[in-house]
Amino acid sequence: MIKRKLPKPDKKKEEVVDEDKNVVKLYFDPAHYTVMENVGQFAVKIVREGDLSKSIAVDFKTEDGTATSGSDFVGIDEPIIFACNEACKEVSEQIFKTCMIKGQALKRSLTTIYSK
């Protein structure tokens, strides 16, 4: 067995500078929802992480997947506003209980973040 002394790590190299401290991350929690067709309404949770010091608005939109807006669910296209220090929002979605077929899906998107 050969033993070799490794140099001590340079502390300056180990420091990680958070250049993204002003970055805001938004995501759905959970990322995937499965609901029964007779659920009617259910809440979709949007989580905000990162810099919470400013209020922001984000465009929330549902889109047709295998389910169709108007016949299977109520389409949504509206801004969601997060106040300062607000980390979570819920959006209510509505499914038409007589129209959804097992396995149908709709798409959700968060786009265009506006800082206030």
Which short descriptors sum up this protein?
single chain; 116 residues; mainly beta; three-stranded antiparallel β-sheet; 1 helix; 41% strand
Give an overview of the whole structure.
The relative contact order is 0.27. With 116 residues, the protein is mainly beta. The strands form 2 sheets. The protein has a 3-stranded antiparallel beta sheet, with no helix packed on it. A 3-stranded antiparallel beta sheet has the order 4-3-6, with no helix packed on it. The chain starts with 10 loop residues before the first helix and ends with a strand. The longest helix has 4 residues. The chain is built from 1 helix and 6 strands; from the N terminus they run H-E-E-E-E-E-E. It is elongated. 3% of the residues lie in helices and 41% in strands.
